[in-house]
Task: inverse folding
């Protein structure tokens, strides 16, 4: 839906930038993923910290959205903070489940897939933003869109992991698909 809105703004309305829907989705996405982690059994002892991060990230993201980079410029500061946050939470979660004393089949555990997809995606996005200027210069010289290729692979890894996680979740909660 956001991609369609962005396309509409860019090609039909002829806005010079279509960052607004992507900025809104980014803020919602990061807050949602932090909230999802706060629901896991392994993160219950860190639940207060995660709730703090939800509020903190939401406030910082809104300040950036409203006052710093604003609506029509892509909020790269929010993206970077969100990627660092999700990579840290995912790494902490993975460390926690690997250190746990009881056995758990990780390949059937939905949060394992969520954490793996997010850590790869977040770390990859941080590197893409860090090397973005160099990749753009390389594209201008060679016309090879390396940035787009890497971004596509990161999206496949993230969404593939989410799909596997949702399938695992469905198998573990056969009678009630979502437990809040």
Result:
């Amino acid at each position: 839906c956001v991609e369609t809105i962005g396309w509409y703004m860019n090609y039909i309305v002829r806005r010079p930038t279509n960052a607004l829907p992507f900025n809104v989705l980014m803020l919602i996405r990061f807050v949602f993923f932090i909230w999802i982690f706060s629901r896991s059994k392994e993160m219950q002892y860190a639940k207060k910290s995660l709730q703090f991060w939800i509020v903190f990230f939401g406030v910082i993201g809104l300040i950036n959205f409203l006052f710093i980079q604003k609506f029509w410029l892509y909020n790269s500061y929010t993206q970077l903070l969100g990627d660092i946050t999700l990579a840290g939470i995912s790494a902490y979660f993975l460390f926690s489940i690997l250190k746990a004393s009881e056995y758990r089949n990780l390949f059937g555990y939905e949060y394992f897939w969520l954490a793996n997809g997010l850590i790869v995606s977040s770390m990859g996005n941080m590197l893409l933003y860090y090397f973005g200027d160099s990749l753009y210069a390389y594209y201008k010289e060679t016309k090879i869109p390396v940035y787009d290729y890497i971004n596509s692979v990161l999206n496949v890894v993230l969404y593939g992991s989410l799909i596997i996680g949702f399938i695992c979740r469905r198998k573990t909660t056969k009678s009630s698909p979502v437990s809040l």
